[in-house]
Design goal:
372 residues; Arc Repressor Mutant, subunit A; 55% helix; globular; binds magnesium ion
């Protein structure tokens, strides 16, 4: 039972904290058929947010995860599976009607094959049409329009497409379908701001200026405070002390993944946590994670490590200023280049007060533990 309070995977229902503004923005985008790019570093809550918006508004939709695709045919495969699932969600109950719809679609789309299994359909691109993702998406749109449905396709970890050899062709194919869509709203989610930016803001790329960009930040401390107290009351019948809430928020820096990681452990106990428990549990966790932290760290160059460590110890608004440069023992021009690289790698970010910070609170804690 305890596990569900702070899930490792998608946060749902009452275990989903806030994001009111973002939920309403995405809902309005979908309602007005405006496609969207949703960007945030890994584990900020993109997948959870999309799932929440779809379920609370009863939108018909799916999330197609592109994280593991390695080539064009795998992209085709996951999209064909997603399209099949969506069509099945929209199918009327009557097998006769289904058969009729499918026959019409089959006539319209000779490159796509349909297998009827009872009143479910399975959809595949015929082998010779291997390169054509837009066929599938356009067919889905025709189907949705004919059956008077609206639906949502969220491409999750979409930046992976940019990494493939055939990226230009896939992007062009997606653009072709998105531009023609009447009943499907598309959401492109991704965790690499740099790659996604290149895909959607570079004039020479097919997806240039196709949709609005939405950046997902961390959840506000005040929202977390209310949320944590609500779940504490459920678990122990009382709120947490202000000090305890502040300690959880300070240690995790409101990073959704780490809030869940820490609190999942705290909520296993019979009694509400005290400050000492929080630090002990967090330090044990960091200890367990140290081998991947060290291995990530050792992949960086010496100057990158120096800058990351300096920012872990002393976050700054003025990384190019003399004070920070002297402290880090790196020249301002080197800081400038290195900072860009670390930002592209999502190792640092600018917080809401414009301070440059180490993005991952576990890495930051580890560095501080070893350097201070
Ligand atoms: N709004 C939220 N409320 C509570 N927990 C959340 C929220 N958003 C994300 N999480 C938690 O944060 C972690 C990462 O979420 P996920 O949706 O997988 O992020 P992403 O898709 O950006 O990588 C998960 O443990 C999830 O349960
Ligand atoms: Mg995700």
């Amino acid at each position: 039972m305890n596990q569900q309070y702070f899930p490792q995977g998608i946060a749902e229902e009452e275990f989903f904290c806030n994001r009111e503004k973002e939920r309403s923005l995405i809902k309005n985008s979908i309602a007005s058929h405006e496609h969207l790019v949703l960007v945030a570093p890994r584990r900020y809550g993109k997948t959870s947010l999309i799932a929440k918006v779809l379920s609370e508004n009863s939108f018909i939709g799916i999330s197609i995860d592109l994280f593991f695709v390695l080539n064009q045919s795998e992209v085709n495969k996951v999209i064909a599976e997603g399209v099949s699932q969506l069509i099945n969600k929209m199918l009327p109950k009557s097998t006769v009607v289904v058969r009729k719809i499918v026959n019409t679609l089959a006539e319209l789309n000779p490159k796509i094959s349909f297998n009827l299994l009872g009143n479910r359909v399975e959809i595949n691109l015929k082998p010779y049409a291997d390169k054509n993702i837009s066929e599938l998406l356009i067919m889905l749109d025709q189907f949705a329009t004919k059956s008077k449905n609206r639906c949502v396709i969220a491409f999750d970890e979409f930046q992976q497409i940019g990494e493939l050899k055939e990226n230009h062709m896939i992007e062009a194919s997606v653009r072709h379908a998105v531009e023609r869509s009447k009943s499907i709203t598309y959401i492109f989610c991704g965790s690499n701001r740099h790659l996604l930016n290149e895909m959607f803001s570079d004039k020479n790329r097919p997806l240039y200026h196709l949709c609005d960009l939405m950046v997902l930040n961390r959840i506000h401390a005040e929202s977390y405070s209310i949320f944590l107290n609500h779940l504490a009351t459920q678990k122990w019948g009382c709120s947490l002390t202000e000090e305890v809430v502040n300690e959880i928020i300070n240690i995790t820096e409101c990073h959704p993944y780490y809030v869940n990681t820490l609190c999942r452990r705290l909520w296993r106990n019979e009694h509400p946590p005290k400050i000492e428990n929080i630090v002990t549990i967090w330090e044990n966790y960091i200890e367990q994670q140290s081998s991947w932290i060290i291995s990530d760290f050792s992949r960086l160059t010496l100057v990158q490590r120096k800058l990351l460590s300096s920012l872990a110890i002393s976050p700054t608004k003025e990384p190019y200023g003399q004070i920070f440069s002297t402290f880090a023992k790196i020249s301002a021009s080197t800081i400038q280049n290195t900072l860009q690289v670390l930002q592209k790698l999502d190792l640092i970010y600018q917080d809401h007060n414009d301070f440059y910070q180490v993005l991952d609170p576990a890495i930051k804690y580890f560095i501080r533990q070893h350097l201070l």
